[in-house]
Design brief:
GO terms for molecular function: nucleic acid binding. This protein has 121 residues and is of the alpha+beta class. It has a domain of 77 residues. Helix content is 24%, strand content 22%. The chain contains three helices and four strands. It has a four-stranded antiparallel beta sheet, with helices on one face.
Length: 121
C-alpha cells in the first residue's frame, strides 16, 4: 500500500514517526519493508525536482534560467530504496501513485527480489 506524505496529511509527521517506531519494535524488519521513493526530471535546462527547487534570496542577479531551447529533451527517473536495495528506472513521464504499476515489471520485480522485503515477509 502506497501512502504519500503530503503537507495536508491528516496524520502529523510526529505521530507517523511514533507509529513507525512502535511497529519497528514489534517487527525488527518493518522498516526494511517500506519502499522510499523519489523521482526527478532531467532536461536540457538541468535537473528539475519540484520538491527541491527553491530560490531563497529576494534579489539574486545570478538566479536566471534559460527556459527555451531549439531542441528539447527530457528524461524522468524514478528511484526506490527498500531494505538494502536501491534501484532506478527510466519512466516515460511523471508517475503518480497509481502509476507505480506502469514501471517495467521485469526490472521492478528483479529490484524487489534482491531486497530484504522478499526475504523478510
Amino acid at each position: 500500500m502506497a501512502t504519500p506524505l503530503a503537507a495536508t496529511s491528516s496524520v502529523p509527521l510526529f505521530t507517523r514517526s511514533k507509529l513507525i517506531t512502535r511497529r519497528n519494535r514489534q517487527d525488527a524488519y518493518f522498516v526494511n519493508k517500506i519502499l522510499f521513493t523519489d523521482e526527478a526530471t532531467f532536461t536540457r535546462r538541468g535537473i528539475f525536482n519540484r520538491k527541491n527547487c527553491h530560490i531563497w534570496a529576494n534579489q539574486n542577479p545570478n538566479a536566471n534560467w534559460v527556459r527555451h531551447f531549439q531542441h528539447e529533451f527530457k528524461i524522468n527517473i524514478w528511484c526506490g530504496i527498500i531494505g538494502v536495495s536501491c534501484g532506478s528506472f527510466r519512466t516515460p513521464s511523471k508517475i503518480d501513485w497509481s502509476g507505480l504499476s506502469k514501471l517495467p515489471s521485469r526490472k521492478f520485480s528483479r529490484f524487489t527480489r534482491r531486497s530484504s522485503f522478499r526475504r523478510s515477509c
